[in-house]
Amino acid sequence: MMAVVVRDDGVGFGEENFISFCTPDSRQKEKGGGKGLGRLTCLLAFRRIRVHSVFNDGDGWKERELVLQCESPELQAKESASSATAFSTEVRLEELRPEFEACAAIGFDDLADWLAEHFLPALVERPKGLLACS
After folding, report:
1. How many domains does the chain fold into?
2. Any alpha helices (H) in 10-105, and if so which ranges?
3. List of E strands, 1-134
4. What is the pLDDT along the chain (134 residues), one digit of tens a residue?
5. Which among 59, 51, 46 is positioned nearest to 8, based on CA atoms?
6. Sheet holding 129-133: strands in order across?
7. 120: domain range?
8. Which of 7, 12, 18, 121 sits at a 20 to 30 Å CA gap from 54?
9. CATH number, domain at 98?
């Protein structure tokens, strides 16, 4: 497994969610009953997290791209106007670290079950998401 990709059509990384993402141990997701991704935990197993999000900030549609990685600990982020007119967010966990490869021998159904359990409140209350492994 080289990457895990999670996509959804929730509200995206507007300013409030972006600030929450940049805040260690933020409680923002708890307001909606979710747990959040656990970005720091993900960085233990994967070298990089990439986020691409389309959101509407009230002044129009925008895109935000983020890259978070331990090797370059500064969060790389950019925001720009978007031609898209629908909410979407894609989170990519890239480059599984070698010491976790043995743990990656999990079946897709087991992984999907775990993710559904982890994100159940968000899945019940929010639009459908899409999970893919590559």
Report:
1. 1
2. 15-21, 39-45
3. 3-8, 46-56, 61-69, 76-81, 88-96, 129-133
4. 678 888 888 888 888 888 887 777 666 666 655 555 677 778 888 899 899 999 999 999 999 999 988 877 677 889 999 999 999 999 899 988 888 877 766 777 777 777 777 666 555 555 555 555 55
5. 51
6. 76-81, 61-69, 46-56, 88-96, 3-8, 129-133
7. 3-133
8. 121
9. 3.30.565
